[in-house]
Amino acid sequence: MKVFIAVAICKILYFIGSRVGRGSSLSGQIAMKVCPGALKRLKLPKTVIAVTGSNGKTSTVEFIARALEAGGMSVGWNYEGSNQIEGVATLLLRTSSLRGKVRRDALVLECDERYAKAIFGAVKPTVLVVTNLCRDQLTRNGHHEFIFDRILSAIEAAGYGAAKGKAAGGGAAEGEVADDGAAEGEVVGGGVTLVLNADDPYVAAFAGKEGGIKSGNRVVWFGVGRGALCPNPSAGDALCPNPSAGDALCSNLSTGDALCCNPSTGDALCCNPSTGDALCCNPSADDAICPDPLTGGDVAPIYDDGAFCPVCKGRMAYGYRIAGHYGDFACCACGHSHHKLDIEVTALDLLTGEIALDAWAATEEGRPGARPSVRNGVKTRLRLPSVPGAYNLAAAIAAVAAAGLGAGDAARALDGFELEGGRTVRFSAGGSEGVLLISKHENSMSYNQSMAWIVGQRKPCTVIVMVDSISRKYYTSETSWLWDVDFDILGDGCVQNVVLAGRYFNELMARFAMSAVDLGKCSFVGDIAELRGCVAGCGAGPVYAITCFADKAKLLKAFE
C-alpha cells in the first residue's frame, strides 16, 4: 500500500510540477516524506547503471542512455539533471506502475557525489561509473579527498562490498562476498561492476593495488591512451614536446620507455626498464629529472594535484599527462600506479572529432590486472571533439560493455551523436556565431579544458568569461577558486578580445591582471544587459562564452 501511495503522489505532483517548472525533484521529495522506504520496495530492472564523480556525469549518462536505446531497450534516466536522492526518487516513482514495478528495461542514474551513498542505500546499481575526482565546489565539497571518502562509502552502500570490521567482519550481507584476508578498512567484492577512470590516480585508488577496494574481476578500466593526443611522440609532438630538455618525464616514448621498474623500492621513471636505467632512482635525493613536484617537470600550472600519491602521500611520477593530474602515473613509494585499460581511446582528432578506441576482451578468468589478449578496435565520432568528451564517451562505452552489450554497437550508436543536455549551446552574437561552453564555477579543470578547446579551434575569436551567480544550489561569494584557473591559456594569439562580465567582474579583473593575458584586449561589463553591445564592438570571428549553469539563462537572454 505504501508503494501505491508513493507512486500515485509522485505521478500527480510531477504532472502538476512539470507545468510550472518544479517537477524534477519536488514530487519525489514529498512522496518520500509521506511514504519513507518506498524506494526499497520497488521492483527494478536488471540493468541499473549509476554515474558519479566530479565532472562529466550529465554527458556520460546521456551517452549511456542513447547507446542502450539504440540497442532496443527502454531507458529511464534523470535527464533534468536532478541528481540527488529526491531527483532519483522522482524518476523511479514516476516510471513505476502502481504495483511498484519500474516500467523500463534499464535505468541510468546521475548521482551527486556527496549524496550517492543515500541513493545506493535505497537503489542498488548493477554498474557504477566513477568519472573523475578534481577540485570542485569548494564551499560545498572542500577538497576532493573528502569526496573520495564519500564515494568510497557509497561504493560499499552499492553492494560492491563492506569494510572488514563492519559488515564483512561478522559475515557478509546478502549478495556480498566475505574475505577473511581483507585488511581493516579494505572493501571486499560484491555484486556491482565498477567502471573506473584509470588515468585519474584518485579514482584508480578505489580499486588500486594499495587502494581502498580489493580489486577483482568486477572492475572495468577506461582512459585515454599514450598516443591518442601524440600521433608521433618521437618527433616531439603534443604530450612530450621536448623530453631531452626535461619538458616531460619521458625520455623517448617511441622506444617504449615505461614507468617505474620497481615502485616499491622507490625507483621512479626508467629510461630502459630492461637495463634498470632510471631518471630518478631516489626522488628524495632530488636526482635527475625529478625536481620538486610542485614546480618541476611537465606538471599542471598553478597547482598540481598529481604531485603526491592519494594513497600514501609519497611523490608521484608521470610517464605523460593527458590533462591536470590525469595520465600515466606511478607512486615512487607504495606502487599505486596506472592500470591496464579495458576501453582505451587510442586516437582523437580534435578538429574532425574522429575517435578510435580499443575494447579489450578478457579471455582468462581470475587474473585481475593481466592484459587481456583479445582486442576489438572501434571507431566513432564526437560531435564536439574535446578531451573531456573523449573521457565521457569512453566511460559510457565501458559502462554499456559492463552491462553486457557490445562496445562496438555502443560506439556505432554514438557516432556523431549530439548531446541534448550537454555543455554546449549555440547562439547568435550579432553577426557572429556564438558558442556557450557551460563550465562549472568553482571547478578549475572544467574552465581549463573549455579554454583549451577554444584555443584549439585556432580561429581569431572573442571570449566572454562571466561570473554572476557562483552556484544555483547555494549562495556564496567566495571567489578564491578563480586563482586555481589557468587563465594564461587565453593569452594565445588567436584570442583577440576577452570580455569579463557579471557581478564578480572586479574579481575577474584582479585575477586577469596576474595572468599572461594582455589587459589591453580585455573589456569589463558589470551589467549583463550591456554584454551584447560590448561584444558587437569586438569585430568579426566566433564568440565563445564560458560560464556556469547558474548564469546560462542570463547570458543567453543578453543576446536575444
What does this structure look like?
It is a single chain. Helix 5 packs parallel to helix 7. The strands form four sheets. The protein has a nine-stranded mixed sheet with strand order 2-3-1-4-5-6-11-12-13, sandwiched between helices. It has a six-stranded mixed sheet with strand order 14-15-19-16-17-18, sandwiched between helices. Among the domains are: 40-163 and 175-219, Mur-like, catalytic domain (UDP-N-acetylmuramoyl-L-alanine:D-glutamate ligase, 3-Layer(aba) Sandwich), CATH 3.40.1190.10; 424-558, Protein-Tyrosine Phosphatase, Chain A. The chain has 560 residues and is an alpha/beta fold. It contains 14 helices and 19 strands. Strand 11 and strand 12 (354-361) form a beta hairpin. The protein is 25% helix and 19% strand. Residues 162-190, 209-217, 232-300 and 362-374 have low confidence and may be disordered. The longest helix is centred in the N-terminal third of the chain and has 16 residues, at 2-17.
